[in-house]
Amino acid sequence: MDGQTFLHTKKILLVDDEPELLALVAAILKDEGFSKIVTAGTVKEAVRVCQSEKPDLAVLDVMLPDGDGFFLLGQLRTFTDIPVIFLTAKDEAADKLAGLGLGADDYIVKPFLPQELSLRIFAVLRRSYKAEEPVVRLEGCTIDFSRAEVRKNGEILNLTAKEHALLETLARNEGRIVTVDGLCEALWGENPFGYENSLNAHVRRIREKIETDPSHPVSLVTIKGLGYRLNVRK
Predict the structure, then answer these.
(1) Could you give the count of Cα atoms lying within 13 Å of 102 in the half-sphere of its Cβ?
(2) Closest to 24 measured CA to CA, from 107, 113, 89
(3) Which of 56, 83, 105, 159 supports an S-S bond with 148, CB 3.0-4.6 Å?
(4) pTM of this prediction?
């Protein structure tokens, strides 16, 4: 089982009192390959579901009808240490610090891009549940993520931390377009604006390492106006 498949086996708990939003987030995660999704609309229901279903990660809304996400996180921490991501419409530093201070792993402000949510969930799962990193095969080379190495024509080329993170993000979304904003956020975190030139520079250096002809890339390809896609050999 490779690293991406391993993460897709994890069960996700979604807690929000808006049925439409629950359905939307569940659909986003199912499109990303997550098949084990459970939901709840209140603090009381979330505690019950978490105790019975034993999810691997929880996405909690801050505002709930019988309490708030911070209170719910405190309740969950009495019997589980699963990673938690807050989902809220309130972009206030005090709320963010309160959630992270209670032991939350991340914080997403509504409205959000679907890809932003999936990237954040993948990042938290990868930090929380270690699995053997896969070896990804491209046209003319292989990438060993566990060693941060590219093997091409009998040569071993080392990846920098940013190159590793960029390729890892693309590999998790193999065959799909990852937007420029999504890649910048994966590499530089919140408020990734202004990093496009740096991203382009990293892409050029990666192509020098993985492509047979970097001027005509076939593995790390540009999707004009959108972002990039990594073509992986099966």
Answers:
(1) 24
(2) 113
(3) 159
(4) 0.56
